[in-house]
Queue: 4 jobs
Job 1
Amino acid sequence: MAIHLTKESKILVQGMTGGEGMKHTRRMLAAGTNVVGGVNPRKAGRTVDFDDRPVPVFGSVAEGVDATGADVTVVFVPPASTKAAVTEAADAGIGLAVVITEGVPVHDSVAFLAHARRRGTRVIGPNCPGLISPGQSVAGIIPADITKPGRIGLVSKSGTLTYQLMYELRDIGFSTCVGIGGDPVVGTTHIDCLAAFQDDPDTDLIVLIGEIGGDAEERAAAYIRDHVTKPVVGYIAGFTAPEGRTMGHAGAIVSGSSGTARAKQQALEVAGVRVGRTPTETARQVLAVLDAGA
């Protein structure tokens, strides 16, 4: 099994005919993803060939859903168009919208996430790498060739650290890796993924990657303490961040001791989570937990 994305998922790509959309659609197809169409109102009716794989272009998400039965969309559109794109997908009945776009205004994110929630559409992102169920499907920009199918579930704020942990643990493999994005407002949280991995019979261990700023990791720690019985190993980016310095991700806001890597580490450890100080140490912690349970 996997969470949110399987080999049965039928994927539309909003913005497929743009530069990033073309590049990553080709990569998704090469990984075996069932991309059933693109969406571009100005190019409706055309077909794009990806290495001899023809993919139709539809004028709207609703047309794509009607023609193909698509249940997932990956959004590669400019920030100013993202609100309209996600709203359109939700109105068309798409079950999962993966929003890769960076720089989406927060008020737009709040609006389209509320609309999607009312429509029953799960949103991953914005400003995220997407998700991958290795050996089954990729929705987004996560490389498919750096790991293999396995029994670890991974949820991460950081795209780069998602890739690094996937590579560090490539010999073990993953059920699903989800990059939720680092913006202040995102559609799918650490807690959402923890709950899904807890319920997934093919996930034996969960890796949680967070970063300084906000209280998402502290809330995840409370959820783990009360609801998660599977082992969880964590990593928090930002242990060496200088005090009072604005960091890269839009959500990485630290106030006093709140939101620091140390505070998050302590909250997770109280909940029984092993926390590594570096990605490599985190991978070693995973291997130690798996060896102890063997």
Note: The two ends are 21 Å apart (CA to CA).
Job 2
Amino acid sequence: MKRYLILEDGSSFPGKGLGATIISTGELAIQTSNFGYQEALTDPTNAGKILVFTTPIIGNSGINAIDYESINPTVKGIIANDVGFNVSDNENFEELDSFLKEKNIPAIFDVDTRALVHRLMNEGTIKASIMDTDDEHAFDQIKALVLPKNKSATVSTKNAYAAPNVGKSVAVIDLGLKHSMLRELSLRQVNVTVLPYDATPIDIENLRPDGIIISNGPGKPKEALKYVNDTLDHFYGKYPILGIGLGFLVLSDYLNFELVDLPQEFNGINYPVIEQNSNKIWQTSMDIDQLVLPDSVQINMNQEYFDLHTELLAGFAINEDKVIATAFNPEGAPGSLDAIAIFDQFLNMME
């Protein structure tokens, strides 16, 4: 079935339909990962996005339930150059087309993604729709659409839940966390309680945690900080705090660091950062559209991580305040495990 990706600037990209046959609209985002398409499309950080995969083919390794980053994906669609079918006779693997239909996600393949990415490289946020036509009415619909705000509220857990273990106790404020983060904490025997995005300081205090994590997730830091600000006022400097992704932006905003919009959103696994103290370069996974202007930082830091593309601050540690924050995802998934030591540093802060 022929379908169209239409952009609010009036351009149209035809292709073949895959997955759900619904009409869908969202924010177009370039996904530069060479692998890990399943983790990308189930990552809550990508809520509300139509992902354009730059890798030549996706779906060729199927879908495995163990690699979900969330049970119910919240992406609005995916765009690909080519898709693999009939990937395996193993009953543990599901074909991408079947998975997309099951999760009600539309997709288009046989699209010239190189031309599409070239078109988007110098664009900011751009709205797009997956539709059956590319007539004038379709373009009027996309122009009239208002993208939703406060996405974290839509993907965060509605009720607190436990991921029990026998070690240190950590309260996780869920702004759109990934399963892989919980997996890494479990491997370190951390006893986790996951709380909604709007958890109060009393909710956290009642758990008597050894530390607090502000998770990654979708949306803007100003929106999330409205809910997390009281928690930071209450616990900053008292308990060790780790911020990841959106959590990094929230902490940076709270500390009055200047956030800079990136020329093009980082959405993939190939973003090198340099660890200042050791000059080690880590290949990292990021889903973020802002980083910190180094000159705006007026606090003495024990560790800084800089993005090599922009020379902006992509992570920091303040031992005196017991705070670590990273724009990148230390758990990878997809991506390398170069930054996995961030979790160990956080655990050391709780000793």
Note: The longest strand covers residues 259-275.
Job 3
Amino acid sequence: MKRVNIAEFGGPEVLQLIDAEEPHAGPGRIRIAVRAAGVNPVDWRIREGQKLGAHPTTLPTGIGLDAAGVVDEIGDGVEGVAIGDHVFGEGLSTYAEYAVLTAWARMPAGLSFEEAAGYPSVTETALRVIAQTGVQPGQTLLVSGASGGVGSAVLQIARERGITVIGIAGAANQDYLRSLGALATTYGEGWVERVRSLGRVDGALDLSGSGVIRELVELTGDPEKVISIADLGAPDLGVRFSGVAGSVPDALAEAVDLISRGKLRIPVEKSYALADAASAHIDSQAGHTRGRRVIVI
């Protein structure tokens, strides 16, 4: 089978499309014929060799965590899923024609493989960081990097829970943030004052690593009310870096519920062929994403 592989840490050029042995589903796992794989910032952080405690890496290795596809192999002890089911979830080395999933759910009706591949890690991360801020219904959550995949999920989930959301993103994405129910503003000179003019901030999320941690602490008045998933230096300022996933099966179940009720929809900004994984990483690292990027197999 074809798989994107890395034999050394580095830039996008280290991603290589190779012929690899097919993986097989061990106990408690399923294998899918991958139809699409989500592209997440954690993927290129792993590729660069960043020290991420939740994702220890031994080279050579495949890459990718999220996927959607068709079940074609079921491991011992697995119930509630059948060969031929359409599922989405998290696994290992998902930039490939076949991948083993460690957590999964049936795809909601009406969702394409391409769309479904963009939800697993994004939804789990959004649910986790909203909870970690401690922001409650009736309060206000500030989101930096609000137009990307996690930001898109955070805005919708928070609004569904009765939380007011202020989203910060580039000028081109202001209408997109408003379409998701957020109060929107841009970066650039005076952005802290613009946020203050929109209301009190009870918690804040740094989703893009834009060097705004100090300002987020200033706006909330307390570093414990700020969570980052993108700035590894956040703990130096007393801010928690959230990088360890909670319950992915629970997150997938909630994603299915939200999607099925029309409360969560994350657009796919761009799709790439498996051979173009390097381009997907380049675009992901450049930021300014609206929704998700996926690799279609």
Note: The chain has a mean pLDDT of 95.
Job 4
Amino acid sequence: MPDRAPQPVDRQLPTEEARELISLVRDIARQEITPKAAEEEDAGRFPRDLFTLLSHSGLLGLPYASEYGGGDQPYEVYLQVLEELSAARLTVGLGVSVHTLSSYALAAYGTKEQQVEHLPGMLGGGMLGAYCLSEPHSGSDAAALRTKAVRDGDGWVITGTKAWITHGGIADFYTVMARTGEEGPRGITAFLVPGDAPGVSAAAPEKKMGMKGSPTAQVHFDGVRISDDRRIGEEGQGFAIALSALDSGRLGIAACAIGVAQAALDEALVYAAERRQFGKAIADFQGLRFMLADMATQIEAGRALYLAAARLRDAGRPFARQAAMAKLHCTDTAMRVTTDAVQILGGYGYTADFPAERYMREAKVLQIVEGTNQIQRMVIARHLVGPEER
């Protein structure tokens, strides 16, 4: 490793427990994730055994209560864990973020009885979750969803199709938003659906530009019968639950984006120190040094932005505007930084022999998932100047 090799991120963590947690995550990343990342992504293999390890290591329930198997960690710490995992492999970091998002509805809105029954398995029992809001005809306009849940005796029958579902077809549980009443946001209710319930099936995974190891698929609910004790919150409360979950989920995506950007910067730093042209390392050319400086500055700004939003959340203060800002800035930063990393590596950056091209392909999806960056701008503007006139 050259003298100018990048060092691990110097994190400002609130407790010694948090420092030990980051150390554990780095060990797992170094030993279990990074060595297999390129091969498994190229082959399109999902590392389910790794998620079992993460679950048993207490990393799939970090921001939730320890009485249900969670880690009692503030979001400030949880997001930095996501960043570390995403720097090693985005399929893993994003997968943890989606699982955490999928567990949110029950953890925040479920009854005590529901939480006691389901959360221990979801948070530390090796289970994996998926979040079902989007549909083939309702992505950004999520309130227009068509999946229906109809009362049937003391239970419900769910029918419809969800789209773009991370972990679709392999999840142990699905948090599903379905229409139980009038059109629009007030007619939507949240449900917890077992992955093996009769009538649940998945289409073939989408063939994606990046994150090939993370299955994304349509999930079909064909007359799926569930009991009323799997309804989360009140009837008609589902859209509010979904939006509340997405506020936190957007912070997860922001942290994932900074992880990918940091990995790309680290790759560019190593290459720039080793690659020699015109008799010296290319890191000694001013034009390239300025690129590296800009990349590092954008990453630090993104990290500060998502952590500031996380601290608001941890303090119980409103953070929706800051979450949208963090998601917007951090994912745009990931796209810029990974593109610049490919440029710094030149022809090698365009080959699969180096991870820079994978980082660039992966960064693109982060500008789209959990609310496109155009939607983030709408959210931010509404906080600043109010809703648009109709």
Note: The longest helix spans residues 238-274.
